[in-house]
Design goal:
The complex is a heterodimer of chains A (116) and B (114). Chain A has 116 residues and is mostly beta strands. Helix content of chain A is 0%, strand content 56%. Chain A starts with a strand and ends with a strand. Chain B is an all-beta fold. Chain B contains no helices and ten strands. In chain B, the strands form two sheets. In chain B, strands 2, 4, 5, 8, 9 and 10 form a six-stranded mixed sheet that branches. In chain B, strands 1-3-7-6 form a four-stranded antiparallel sheet, with no helix packed on it. The relative contact order of chain B is 0.33. Classes of the chains: A mainly beta (116), B mainly beta (114). Chain A binds chain B through residues 32-33, 42-47, 50, 52, 91, 93, 95, 97-109, and chain B through 31, 33, 35, 40-43, 45, 47-48, 50, 55-56, 58-59, 89, 91, 93, 98-100, 102-108.
């Protein structure tokens, strides 16, 4: 089954601290992509970071980085130097072909609160 | 450039009425997606369009749902005879390609069925 599991429904972090959001997934593919999206209260879903499975190096985008462990099918997001604007829902997702459809499979999300 | 736009941003309707939700993708993006986001249930895929090709409708939750994409650009999601369980946020996204390209999302339409 193609699934994404985010085991932390809610997390909180102090401003300027570091937080890690976890994600595990299930796929039989050998090459694929993984994404973290952010959805602030404004509702606009925004891509945070992407990882190509064939690349061993973990992706990094400024304060955001991932810990990708292919064998364990784990894809965690680390946010360093947390800022108030990082407060949002974070979703882990990966793309699948399903018949003639192409879609992202999503986790249920982690709600991140940033405390001043 | 302009991002993905959706209209209306909010829609309140009575049970049994029909509603139309519109999505304007980013210019040049051939792929367009519709998702539904319900509280506590994550995002549910509804339908995918590639250019002008006929879509696979198997992801639509019932035959009350239909979608079209005119001229490979604007898309409309129509829900007939709305039910209370249709209440959700409907998100549209577009992308240049697949599978590694970013899906750019619109702000969504919040549908409330009374």
């Amino acid at each position: 089954a193609q699934t994404v599991t985010q085991s932390q429904p809610e997390m909180s972090v102090q401003e300027a601290e570091t937080v890690t959001l976890s994600c595990t997934y299930d796929t039989s593919e050998s090459d694929y992509y993984l994404f973290w999206y952010k959805q602030p209260p404004s509702r606009q879903m925004i891509l945070v970071i992407r990882q190509e499975a064939y690349k061993q190096q973990n992706a990094t985008e400024n304060r955001f980085s991932v810990n990708f462990q292919k064998a364990a099918k784990s894809f965690s997001l680390k946010i360093s130097d947390s800022q108030l604007g990082d407060a949002a829902m974070y979703f882990c997702a990966y793309p699948v072909n399903a018949g003639n459809n192409r879609k992202l499979i999503w986790g249920l999300g982690t709600s991140l609160a940033v405390n001043p | 450039g302009a991002g993905v736009s959706q209209s209306p941003s909010n829609k309140v309707t009575e049970k049994g009425k029909d509603v139309e939700l519109r999505c304007d993708p980013i210019s040049g993006h051939t792929a367009l997606y519709w998702y539904r986001q319900s509280l506590g249930q994550g995002l549910e895929f509804l339908i995918y369009f590639q250019g002008n090709s006929a879509p696979d409708k198997s992801g639509l939750p019932s035959d009350r749902f239909s979608a079209e994409r005119t001229g490979g650009s604007v898309s409309t999601l129509t829900i007939q005879r709305t039910q209370q369980e249709d209440s959700a946020v409907y998100l549209c996204a577009s992308s240049l390609g697949w599978p590694g390209d970013t899906q750019y999302f619109g702000p969504g339409t919040r549908l409330t069925v009374l």
